[in-house]
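In keeping with the milestone schedule agreed at the kick-off meeting, the structural modelling team has produced records for the first pair of proteins. Each record is given below as a sequence line and a structure-token line. The laboratory manager (R.T.) confirmed that both were archived under the project's standard naming scheme.
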Amino acid sequence: MKDILLLEPVFKEKVWGGKKLKELFGFPIPSDQTGECWGISGHVNGTNKVVNGPFEGKTVRQLWEENRELFAEEEGEEFPLLVKIIDAQDDLSVQVHPDDKYAKEHEGYEFGKTECWYILDSEPGAELVVGHNAESRDELKEMVDEEKWEELFRRVPVQQGDFVYVPSGTVHAIGKGILLLEVQQSSDITYRFYDYNRPGQDGKLRELHIEESIACSMVPHEDPALDRPSWEEDGLKVERLIKEEYFTVHKWSLKKQGDTLKRLNSSYQLVSVIEGSAKVQTEEAVHLVKQGDHFIIPSTVDSYEISGDVTIIVSESTK
């Protein structure tokens, strides 16, 4: 297999979702309350099908189980990363995710959930919740018990092009009017602190997980130090957004139509096209990709070329 794996997206309807995934990317969303596009996933709750080549019709989950050579023989029971596009028409719940240790002990799952966000678009005044103001776990519990939500949560304004790192244990929420690309550990474990007394799609109040949220939260909150080095390589602008325990994420920008990126490949890469379009050429085929497309460059591809006027997010597992 010397070609890329083009993927069919998986959509998730959410009470806070909207229709930007259709308006901006042309996705065939199931309703006007579609909150998430799972672009690259091997998770049991939603795994993508391959739409080209000899593995057409197989899922990423199946390939991870049956064709590990595509992923540099990386170890682990679960495909390690999940890449999403999130459309927040309304505020998401304020939540926290466990680390690996807590997830294994309490949920029986391999991964906790560390994630990061690249802001694709935001309405004026849009904000995230990132962190809290409690100095101790006792103070955190007291402020939650007394429902001092406005005093407790730290709000951060964002705009297009911002990048936010959200390690496990970070109290957080995506605010309304934000469209973002999320790269995360392949986990669907979420503990809700607060949900605005909002009914879910079934008309009932959504479950909160106060005890688990307090147990998992980083106390006191600390903002991670971020370094975003950038450089140019033969017409390609490269920006490293994050390099940490679970993943490395880069933004690659080809400046103009006709620019070509040539790459040797040693591992596998998860690619999300966030702007423009491009031609991807491997040893076996040529593909045209556009904004919203997601694909995997497997480790069996020795080299490839990308040409066009395009911006992509490239994610790699660092487990």
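The second protein of the pair:
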Amino acid sequence: MPTPLPPITPKHLYPIADDCTADKAYQWINQGAHLLWSGDYHNGIQLLSALKRRTDKKRKQQSGPINAEAFHRYRMFQSQKASLLNRLLIKVGPEYALDLKRAPDLRGACEAAFGELSNETLIPLRMVQGALSAYAWQNKGVHIPALPEPIHVRYGVFSPVRGEYLNLIQTAKLPANTQCAFDIGTGSGVIAAILAQRGVPEIIATDTSEDAILCAAENFARLKLQHAIRLVQADLFPPQPALADLIVCNPPWIPARPTSPIEAAVYDPGNEMLERFLSQVTQHLNPNGQVWLVMSNLAELIQLRPPNFIPYLAEKHGLRVIERLDTKPGHAKSKNTNDPLYEARAREVTSLWKLIPSAGATAKL
């Protein structure tokens, strides 16, 4: 479901337009004020970019390898930055009508992101920009080499832009005679779609998010894969007595607190989801079945987890590693030297860990 807009009740609201300088606007938002933009829409976007640049200049640059303390400082800065930038507001009417010069049509993008609107309200320009960008990506789709059609991603669902791990799913040798697979935390449905495209005859894809379930269903219909994939809204595993020959999971990679719903696909406080998955997975596995766990080592590189954490955690929960397939990232952030995590991202490795139960670990349901 769309995420409703948070109510905004500013204590100090300053109307500004095209004649307001970025320096003055930056001074006001740092003093706690909200700004109501009434000028040209595209000039408002330029002002937002100028405020972002001024905010970024305030961040202390990290020298040398980033560590856990520096990472948490960076996360705090990002949260404070979002709070500052969200103080530049626009006023929209019912159905997201926007009375600004050169304003785009907001209705489709904002209804997809935030739901229908029947009254006048204030909304951060930054959130509008994010909704428009997400809507454009939803309509365009993300090209996946292993699939005949792009994957289309709704607002609030994590986009499969990290294609390197998908190539691991596409090329890794399947367990012998795989008849049923689970895709845990399916999101856009991309992993389940790749498994179906590879010929796995029965797949159950789960997710806790209703948006993800709707998004995956749309993608499976577009790819004509509904016959092979069943969607279940569930926390981790489908209801008993289902058992699988292959269970695939691409869990959140970073053990830190998410600050928005979509960040739950990336951040897993205290490795809670990862621990629960590994502690329960053998109960849902057929004899001779395999678990495929897709994980980046970024958390180890920034010292949020100790080295060799995955083999340790697997052993703790009655599993052992039989194979590890590695790939280097190809996304834009891994090449951006201005990214605060660049030093770690440049050395990042994404792995597909193949796990099987240790002797006697598989439980009967």
